[in-house]
Amino acid sequence: MSKLLLALLLTLPFIFTANAQTKTLPADKKPLTSPQAIDSVLPVRGLAIAAPSAKRLDEFVRFIEQELAPGRINLLILRVDFNYAYESHPELRDSFPLTKADVKKIVAVGKKHGIKIAPQINLLGHQSWATKTNALLRVYPEFDETPHVDTKNYTGWPNADGLYCKSYCPLHPGVHKVVFALADEIMDAFEAEWFHAGMDEVFYIGDDKCPRCSGRDKAELFANEVTKIREHLAAKNRRLMIWGDRLIDGKTTGIGMWEASMNNTHRAIDMIPKDVFICDWHYERPDATAVYFAMKGFSVATCPWRKPELALQQVADMKRYREQATKAMKPRFEGIIATVWSGADRFLDSYYKPDLEKETISDALTLKRLMQEFRKL
């Protein structure tokens, strides 16, 4: 009996220590279910956001550690573009880019918490913004699909040039050598298996004045570019992710030209490989196009932005799709990916604002609400 009592007394400090450690995590961040249980409900719980500045990298890493990991995020799509010290094409670097050592800090915290990192470089579209031409077309103007349109003349949307964002010409013989070198390098740096190529809101494609693309089927041009990128990645067992808007018929659905296509690219959905992962974004209504993509054979995640209540409805919809789907369809309904379109630095400022809870439209508050919901699953 005395030995049993002694053993019990010796274990008490460890019991109290363990209890104390569990109390160090705030109640609103403690997981309520096991990882296996939540993965069966929503396999993908992601955040798509710009990569941080080098200046605030450590703060961003803490954000992953202290917010995203407890919030049960398991996928981080980082919009890197030219915010990296590329060795293959140093002429395309931003002024103060992330270094390989910086990236490894993000990789390390991701591995620690089981968060998959998918770097993003915008390919095809989004090669400019407003009056600014981005690095690829600035350094290699010969890649421009519409060189006759000068971004300096941009006066806002709509405009006579139909300029929202520029595109590179997918048929230019030199463009893929450059962009694939960037993709390979950033994938190696992040030790990544998934790559996001953007490809949303492509308004300039098959331009009438392009000597290579004029008169060609825009759906085929888009599909061929998706397929070319996919094939390049697949050669190294890597997977392609894209935004889904160009694959939706904006006229037939009534969804329009932003969250769907009004320039005839939508037929590409039947021309691209089925292992392309579709990020299906809808920001004003919970349009049920995830069902469309799944029925076409694609893995799909619904992507909300800055309306918390809408995002929670989209979570409920995705859960319902999985619950009611056939055995063949269920695995294609992958989950939810929150999106942020400000810079990461600005987002961090917003996320930690003391009066955030008073806002009704906020990407930061939407992410918080989603993570609260993920913890309940």
User: Treating each run of at least 4 consecutive H or I residues as one helix, how many helices?
Assistant: 12
CATH class: Alpha Beta
Instruction: Write the CATH architecture name.
Output: Alpha-Beta Barrel
Number of domains: 1
Overall shape: globular
Q: Would you identify the CATH H-level superfamily?
A: Glycosidases
Question: Explain this structure to me?
Answer:
It contains 12 helices and 10 strands. It is of the alpha/beta class and 377 residues long. It has one domain (33-376): Alpha-Beta Barrel (TIM Barrel).
Key attributes of the depicted protein:
377 residues, alpha/beta, eight-stranded parallel barrel, 12 helices, disordered N terminus
Question: Which helices and strands occur, and which strands form pairs?
Answer:
Layout: H1 2-23, H2 35-41, E1 44-50, H3 57-68, E2 75-79, H4 100-113, E3 116-123, E4 128-129, E5 132-133, H5 135-139, H6 175-190, E6 194-198, H7 218-234, E7 239-243, H8 250-253, E8 277-281, H9 289-295, E9 300-303, H10 308-324, E10 333-339, H11 344-351, H12 363-376
Parallel strand pairs: 1-2, 1-10, 2-3, 3-6, 6-7, 7-8, 8-9, 9-10
Antiparallel strand pairs: 4-5
Helix pairs in contact: 3-4, 10-12, 11-12
